Predict the 3D structure of the following.
Amino acid sequence: MSRRDRSRRCVQVGAWSATAAAVTAVALVAAGTGTAAADALALPGCPGLLVIGVQGTGESSPSASPSLDTGMLGTMFGPMLTAGVDIDRVYIGYPASFGGAIGTGPGTASYADSVAYARSRLDDTAAAAVEQCPNTRLAVAGFSQGAAVVSDFAQDVGAGNGPVAPDRVAGVALLSDPTRPVGPDPIPGRPGQVSPDPAPGTDGDATAAIHLDPVPGSGGIADTGTDFNALEGRVGEFCAAGDLACDAPANAAALQVAAGVAAQSDLRDPIAAATSITASMQETAAEASTQVLLNDVTVEAGQVNYVPGQTVSQRLAEASDPGGVTDPAEAVAAADKSAQVMAAIAADPIGQIPRLAGQVGAAIGAELAANADILNPATLAHYAAVITNHTGYGATGETGTAADWFAALSQDLSGGAP
């Protein structure tokens, strides 16, 4: 059983390497103030389609204007409003910071707290919109850290656990989504499909003309099994090759560990970072050890075996998820299992230790394979322009395509093109 509470994930964005300069680069392509009581934003009336936007790292603040078109989403929302029919937008103001790391904006608290704040405010705003405006449909867009928030929201809505019903959501656009699932299809769960599904209850004529570009075959740095369920077909992914947030190396589990630890840490200065990272690593290691004992170690008929279902670095990656919730019962069960293991080894060390040593040795090969891309020169070359790739969605026309899509949704909801 995973420590992750799926109804309230706080997904994280990646880290480039263990060096301080790399952590800063990661924060720039990824996405903190302490969590505060969130509230619904004032709505701009009741348009046929209300678009809710969650900006990327350094592009927002808790007091940001809900109607000022800035940042990456500003390059999408401006054209969208021009081409759309009976459409308006509101931006979710939130910290949009990454632990105070240099280059990530003025916020000082962790990425995990920043994401939790945004998610709560997004939930409240969406719920208020459907309550106040019974004929309004919603569309939601997010960039980078904001895309992680929106993806989390969409997954919960699709699973029936969100603040609104799935049929109230016309479309979801995710730009540079850290949670993007593996595969080249821009519409997750729909192999070969490039045109998003229409808004529920519409003929979809305008939406059918929209074609989304393919995305890299790799997944996002925080993909832990993304699934949009009832929203499948109405979620579109926009990801540039070489954007570490959404196009992460396939075999780099240690990178996810670094990402999760950084997402929970105070990175304002070297002393704070060292203390915070150490505490996060200790908690991560303890949780990973619990999962290894419970899932990968067996004690049967007095014989101990280590048969890993996942590598150690993969267990660490799951344990480093800042949205995870540790189950006290699992810790107790792991302590009991540890006592059984020690007793079995003590009773027969000559029979147990050589076999376990061989099993651990076999697991080392799998561990190396799980991280093979980290030291591959081709991987380094692929991410040589990571910042440019991450910040180029407006220049490459991806935000324009997203704008056309949401404008088309509004046209379909209004009964036709303007």
In short: DSSP finds twelve helices and seven strands in the chain. The chain has two domains: 6-251+386-413, 269-375. Confidence is low (pLDDT under 50) at residues 1-38. The first strand starts at residue 49 and ends at 54.
